[in-house]
Q: What sequence folds into this?
């Protein structure tokens, strides 16, 4: 069963290049686009729920790792800021004189 697709906002340059390509291959623009889509879709297997879940888990692991590194870096910055604050408070030249 054939399906009609609509592609919006295709830049003029892309359309010109596709028309040139179609002319070189002695095809209509529509035939050329179908040939390109066929080539792009060649060898694709149907997507299964298991495959989607596996990919999502891989992305989650990568995100978890990045989040852990970010939190560790943030904690280190907080420790440095707290140490600088403690250092400032312990400076003798900043002590207030007693009345």
A:
């Amino acid at each position: 069963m054939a399906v009609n697709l609509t592609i919006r906002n295709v830049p003029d340059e892309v359309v010109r290049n596709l028309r040139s390509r179609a002319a070189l291959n002695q095809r209509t623009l529509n035939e050329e686009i179908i040939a390109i889509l066929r080539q792009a879709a060649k060898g694709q297997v149907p997507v299964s729920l298991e495959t989607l879940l596996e990919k999502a888990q891989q992305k989650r692991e990568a995100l978890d790792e990045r989040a852990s590194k970010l939190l560790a870096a943030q904690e280190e910055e907080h420790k440095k800021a707290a140490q600088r604050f403690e250092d400032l408070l312990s400076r003798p030249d900043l002590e207030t004189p007693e009345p």
The helical segments are 12-24, 29-41, 49-89. The chain has three helices and no strands. Residues 49-89 form the longest helix (41 residues).
